[in-house]
Structure formats: C-alpha cells, structure tokens
Amino acid sequence: xxxxxxxxxxxxxxxxxxxxxxxxxxxxxxxxxxxxxxxxxxxxxxxxxxxxxxxxxxxxxxxxxxxxxxxxxxxxxxxxxxxxxxxxxxxxxxxxxxxxxxxxxxxxxxxxxxxxxxxxxxxxxxxxxxxxxxxxxxxxxxxxxxxxxxxxxxxxxxxxxxxxxxxxxxxxxxxxxxxxxxxxxxxxxxxxxxxxxxxxxxxxxxxxxxxxxxxxxxxxxxxxxxxxxxxxxxxxxxxxxxxxxxxxxxxxxxxxxxxxxxxxxxxxxxxxxxxxxxxxxxxxxxxxxxxxxxxxxxxxxxxxxxxxxxxxxxxxxxxxx
Length: 321
Prior knowledge:
Blueprint: H1 2-9, E1 28-29, H2 44-47, E2 52-57, E3 60-61, E4 75-79, H3 80-86, H4 88-91, H5 105-112, E5 118-122, E6 132-138, E7 145-147, E8 150-155, E9 160-169, E10 175-185, E11 190-197, E12 203-213, E13 218-225, E14 230-239, E15 244-253, E16 257-258, E17 261-262, E18 266-275, E19 281-291, E20 295-297, E21 302-304
Parallel strand pairs: 1-7, 2-6, 5-8, 6-9, 7-10, 8-10, 9-11, 10-12, 11-13, 12-14, 13-15, 14-18, 15-19, 18-21
Antiparallel strand pairs: 2-3, 4-5, 16-17, 19-20
C-alpha cells in the first residue's frame, strides 16, 4: 500500500488526492459491527423519504436496523457475506468481474479484504416503487479503523430502481473507509444513483464505482462530497451496448477554518467513460467544486476512447459553479 501511495503521487489521475497520510496510520481492520443505533442523517429531505432501508455498520450488514418490508418477490437484498455462503453461484458472474483493478488501484486493497456489504438483485421487468437507501455508518471507536465494504447491484432486463447512499461517521477516532461498488445493468435497465458523503473530518473516504451498461440502459449518478479530511469519489462507466445513456454529476464542498487557517482538505469527484467500438451512445458529466475563499474549481474528467471508436455525439463538460 505504501508503494501504491508513492505511485499515486506521480499518477496524473491521482494528482489531486494525496494518500501519504494513510501510510503513517496504524489502521486496524474492522471486525464486526458494534451495537449502535441509527444516527441522525444530515439531509432532512433524504432522511424523511419513504425508502427500503439497508444499514451497514463498519462494512457489515445490520439486519436489525434494516427495513425491507414490501419488497417485490423477484428482488433480493442481502448481506454480501451471507450470499457468498448461501448462493455463491449467483454472485460468480458479477462479483469482481466489473471492476478493473488496473484502473482503480485502491479497489485491489478492497478486494484483498473483501467480506461483506450490500448485494441487491432486481429481477427482469421489476421497477421498484420507492428508493433503496443504503446507510453506511463508520464507528471507529478508540483507534484508527479501516473499513473495506463491497457492494454489488445487478439490474435485470428492463428493471428500474433508485439507489441512495448516505455515508456518516459515529463518534470516535480516525477512520479509513475504502468502498467499492460494482453495478451491472442488463439490457433496458435504468438505475438512478445518489451518494451523499458526510463523514467526519477525522475520516478518509475513498469510493470507487464501476458500472457495466448493456444495450438501451440508463445510468444517472449524483455525488455530493462534503465530509472527511480526504474524500474521493471515482466512477468508471463501461458502455457495452448500443443506445446507452449515462450521466455522471458530482459536487465537492470544503468549509471551516481553525485559528484563521483553513483545514487541509482534499475532496475530489472523478469520472471515466469507456465505449465499446462502433456504438451509438450518449454520455455526459459535470463536476463542480467550491472551496471557501478560493472560489470554484473544476475537477478533472477523462473519456477513455479506443482508437477504433468513431466520434461520439455526447456532450462532455467539466465546470465549477
């Protein structure tokens, strides 16, 4: 990990995310979920939504805090660890096959400690009547804590859903939250994905999302980064079929001063798109950032276009508002 931190310092794609502090902390891997209740959520409108609630504490599913009554029969929401034990064949075509470790180096660390998280399967033609709200709570306790959750969402043909993620920190020491999400959208599926990262300023929050999109699929994502001393959200979308529509939007915010000196904060949203050759597709993104006293900044975005790909009609923007 220390070697990768050094490599990241000279990697253009990681230019604005300095992870050197991680190598100096004696993080211990989280072992189980402490018996804590649901904290107050930072966004009232999100907290008051009628949702199917999934709660993960220190990367482990807490069934006693979940609320899943009324889910359709052809929808499975489970802890990843439980599903690996009960039905590994159902996970095998997807788990670890969407993420590309050579493109997301911190996902390799997550894979080394892969154990639990959310597993969600939405059957063909099923459109959920309300969002699924994944509440991720990090409870560091007394010492530096490392959490490595892995989430998997598989949308069947013509399925539709909204997934909301809220990330918060309970009281305690410093933490390192390294999340990987793998999303598979079968032909005609639609997924709206909202992420609110509101962890404490004693936290380092890294999030890597890989999305595999089939024909005529729609993936729309919005990420708000406003917590943690380091907060990074990275999304790689792979458009593998014709007629795909992908929108990636992100906002990062930094605020607060101590003794007249601004906190040393690093918050980044990054996006990368990969197109299979010769496809008709539409993809667009915008990333905005705001730092107090420094105005707005735009975060870098890249499009991965293979040499055989013809010009795309997509409109790409990276702006600061």
